[in-house]
User: Fold PAAR domain-containing protein from Salmonella enterica.
Amino acid sequence: MKQYTNELTPPVLASFKNPFSAEQLANTDDEQRQIFKSHVEEMKDRSLLTIWRFATTGALTQNGGKIEKASANDSFTLEDGSEVNRAMVGDYVVYPDGTRAKIINGS
Assistant:
């Protein structure tokens, strides 16, 4: 699994300038496509200052732990079609040596 950070790298910044692929746009109806295009147009002159990614089931921590089971009541569909839940305070991280740590703060 790829590990992400909240760092604003050039590829991350570029992805926010054009967030929808040609395939994604082709799979939407005209009304939705127009909403997407107007959103991109509205945001084009704004600066992205920071991002905050959600931690989800299976996410890797900086120290090599993995979120065991995320318990928030919302889910996200990944590009491969699988769904993951958002982690929250009270969920656990498991480290390679078998130790567990409870998430005690977050947004």
In short: Helices lie at 10-17, 22-26, 30-43. The chain has two domains: 1-53, 54-107. The CA atoms of residues 93 and 101 lie 5 Å apart.
